[in-house]
Amino acid sequence: PEALSQHSLNQDEPGPTSTDIAWAAGLFEGEGWISSWRKQPNLRCIGIEMTDEDVMERFMKVVNYGRLMPKLYDSGKTGYRWQTSKHTVVAHVLKLFLPYFGTRRSERANEALRHYETTY
Question: Torsions phi, psi of 112, nearest 5?
Fold first, then answer.
């Protein structure tokens, strides 16, 4: 499937407000993931998926990177996924969200950040 929209870390665009960041961090904490891949254990991947395209568009504006990939579910609904394994973006997004995470997600984010500090 073709990506619906795309953003990059553009320094010319105004940055998100603290309210925007807190909102996106809360959304990510509830719906997102931080993972590693067995085939590429040095990579960390972060992502989020849901059926609300407008919410996902808003999320992408906050992180200012990536694209939405549509996915058709068996129910006939369309889901929208954002994910990245680019280490600079993973680190940027996790550091942006970390102050707003709860304990469990903070531990997972810190593990990923420590991994990148020792790998790159």
Answer: -65, -40
